[in-house]
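Table S2 (continued). Query chain:
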Amino acid sequence: MIEFEKLEKRREERAIKKRKHDEEMELLARERARAEYDQWEQKLEEFHSKQAKYRTNIIESHEENMNIDSLSPLYNECSDFGVRKPKHINRVHTGYNWNGYNRIHYDKEHPPPNMVTGYKFDVFYPDLIDGDKPPSYTIEKDGDGVETCIIRFHGGPPYQDIAFKIVNNEWELSRKKGFKCVFEQGVLRLYFNFKSLRYRR
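Corresponding output:
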């Protein structure tokens, strides 16, 4: 009985030590988490402060240049305030158009000429001054040419417009056919495929 009581007492002592150790470790973990949160909150506050200062500089520069007719010259005048081209990722989709003519004159071993079937554009606007107005795109003529056209992306300050020459074909505007035009998390995503050309005799 004495030995049993001693054993039980040692178990209780070990349980008490373990409980104290666990409480100390939990306290340290909470303090570490609080310190990391305070550090993160400080960095976030610094970021917001820099962003507010940056926006103020852009607005002041705009007010100083109110005699300018359009924003395009303003972009060049305000290069000191971080005006820049947006980063972008472009992908060109190519393939074969198996229309009636090509099915007659070509086969899988001797396919028809490879052609552009669509495009994917990802244009990044993480620091828009006017976050309520989403970026947009327009299609313009490519001089006197009819085979190609110009697609222009407009995001607004502090970003310049960017433009690309693309094939001038009719788009598939159905989501099932791959069309997508959304602005989410600072990225304008424009994906589209061309309609298949039908062979006419």
